[in-house]
Amino acid sequence: MTAVWRVARGAVRRRRLQTVVIGVVVGVSTATIVLALGLLAAASAPFDRAHAQQGGAHLVAAFDRTAVSAEQLTAAAGRAGVEAVAGPFDQVALDVSANRGAMVAPTLNAVGRADPGGPVDRVNVWRGRWVAGPGEVVLDVPPGSDLGVRPGERLDVQGGHRLTVVGLAHSVSDTADAWVTPDQLAVLRPTDVQVLYRLTRAATPAEVDEGLAAVTAGLPPGALLGSRSYLMSRQQVAAESGVYVPLLVVFGVLGVAVAVLIVANVVSGAVVAGVRHIGVLKSIGFTPNQVMAVYLVMVTAPAAVGCVLGAVLGNVAARPVLAEAFEVFGATDIGVGPLVNVVALLGMPAVVALAALLPALRARRLSAAEAISAGSAPRAGRALAVQRLLGGALLPRAVSLGLGLPFARPARSALTLAAVALGVMAVTLAIGLTNSVTAYEEAVRPVHDDRVELVVGKVGGGEGPELGGPTHGVPPVLGDAEDEAVLRALPGAVRVAATSRQLVRLVGGQDSAMVLFYRGDAEELGPRILSGRRPDGPGQLAVPSRFLNQHGLRLGDTLTVELGGQRARVEVVGVALANSAAQVFADWDLLELLAPGTRAGSYHVQLEPGADRRAYAAAAAAADPGLAPAPPRGGSSMGVVVVGAAVLLTLVLGAVAALGVFNTVALNARERRRDLGVLKSIGMTPRQVVVMMVTSMGALGLVGGLLGLPLGVAAHHVVAPAMMRAAQADVLDVVVDVYRVPVLVLPALAGVAIAVLGAFLPALAAARTTIAEVLHNE
Amino acid sequence: MTSDNSTAQVVVELSAVRKEYRESAALDGVSLSIRAGEAVAVTGPSGSGKSTLLNVVAGLDRPTSGSVVVNGDDLGRMSETDLALFRRRRIGMIFQFFNLLDDLPALDNVALAAQLTGTSAGQARARALELLDELGVAGRRNTYPAQLSGGERQRVAVARALVNRPALLLADEPTGALDSRSGEQVVDLLLDLNQIGQTLLLVTHDQALANRCASRLVELVDGRVARDSSLERTP
Fold it and tell me: Nearest CA to CA, how far is B55 from chain A (Å)?
């Protein structure tokens, strides 16, 4: 073995470029695989991962504190089927309606907890700190979200109490909206107690129900006020997280496929390039098995180093990507699972060894004489018909020679072509998804050049009249009806719709919905109705399909809504296009019923074609200084993350594919060193050599582009609707049908770009090769 | 051509050429002039600098010091691209191991050199066919190098070297890889070419070959010119 090791070590040192290429390709491929598999593993059950990481509660139960004692609850929790328990914690509904500027919800479910940790529901405090004394509150806000609340702000609550926000935290179990110390909660007069359970069996609703039955058995009747299973929370967040799953699955599979192709290409090329060396070894007495061992060691040694470094790189790269994608769950420390690392660290060397084994076996069978003469004896020409055809073509000779090169090594060219095609497929898919996200954003929140939205300023120095909507500091001088009349009368106005945004409670559950009430030309200026009809009376609502899905409703169902103590029974008459599941639409008549006299918070105006929007807004402000143009709205964070993830993964795949091309050209140049020398000796310029080598890959890139393009489009037609369905959103034609001819040009050329980028450096090196020695010594 | 060349144009002018590889000098102050129509054989033991001399004349390698002027062009002042264009137009090379492109048939191997100068594919093939015919291998024009005999390969290589009508034909051990009969044929070919005015620089360790082909003998020893004398060709 010593001889084998010495020879292999010498070969590794002598063939520095090959060693580096193998190490780098295996390293980058391993990093890609770790990233892809890590994302796949994380995406397959993001909620479960975050829930497990936080020791999330399987069951959250609220009990009447007057009907049951803490001792009874603790005793009940000790029954079989309960893995861990937290609580009982006192809780109360905090009225924070006096703080509308900071909070969307008028009430917060506050829980008294001294410690964010514990065996169940370890709350992630991602900004500020946990409550330490009276007068302090921590709010439940998903990491990265911005509800306009910062630590240091103060909240006025019922009973004249004032709480200072000291931190922002998130519970994936959604156990509270706010936390205070137990002493502080006692001051706020708790109404009930909360107990959090982790069950030994909680995979299905039936098992969770069994757990609930166990922990409530023997308690006084009426002690249980309500309960919530984590399965419900999982279903709700699945709408957000599920969006990423199809994307990550496709990119994960692409990443693995490209990496395997490139590694196989690099390794088999290295063995093929060393055939003559094999002949020398045999001639001095190495057995076929020893020769094979030399080659396996020679290839797997740098591969092993690359694999380990790549795994480290993949873990480092995956961390921010996973945190970005899944921070909504409050889990900021999601990393690549150990299984993924094990698979990558064992799988990649196995792929390398397998890829090396086949050509090494072939070399093993070569006779010493045959192997040692490789390179100096003339080879039988390959792809001869193609070469002849190209020789007569009306192309510069460097180009026609380059076009013929891929046919000389068809297997290597096929592997490279496949890698480029997959790279182009990724680019096509990423472009399609970017366009889909843009198309969806535009469909949901259309930007019209002929429209102006004017918002009403704060009334009486307080809040703007439209809850949660944009506002400004100048109060209106005219009444609602007068403003609308003025806007209709101003030159250029064609249609006007007044709107008011109000948070209503859905009676019968604990949910709320933001209702946008329309008055005036709602038909033209209101949301797009996908099915059913637009609300035109007091008892009607139009809701997005996500709302229907999340509430188990269908078109035609009825529900009761409540605003300021006034209730109304409404029918879902239409499905509207909206991004948020909690955004619903109604006619102004319903607002008149629930909150008579409410003034509009904003006015949507459609202008004549060519009318000056700035001039119209200035005229409106002149008529009533309380009317100002609405600020521009940004894209959704989900859209940004989807596009960001797609672009990042595409860049990684493109780089790996380009690395594959780099390797192919480097191998071709090495194998064809003599031919290059001959061509240069008869007058081929360095530039022509570069053109020839780059053309050889450019042609592959073009074909790869043409193959990858339809694959990418097909993948998009699967992934985009799957993402929409996962988000419980409507699958719109504009989201799926995003490829137009100009859009297709870019991915079609991406193959050429990948090929040219990958080929350029080794082509340049080939052009600079000293030729004198090879021509005389062969 | 055995006539006096003393008034003919100088095709190759080497002045104090030195070429170093790491510590050792392959060429050590070589000065040499070759006039048009001459057939010069460079001989010497292995490692004497014969091939290095050929490389610097062909522009395949650059001297460490000294100047190399071929057909009026100072190679030391040329870029890599200029050197390629120089080889394309001025130089024809024949190698011991032929150095044909295995993926191209004989005709295209020859035509390729012409196509690089901008000649159309049709014209290049016509000229190549003409040369192959003159060298007696036109019948093998569609055959690939692997199926040609050694002598045939070298004839194709000679045709390729001549296709652009070079000012200087360089031959590096042209018969070294051939059997005696094929070697004789190649020698006759080189003689014929020189007879019609082709300037020839031949590198060989074979004294008999030098005596048959060359009108002048330059012997290199340890990178220096040890002898430079006229020859009477042996029949």
Answer: 6
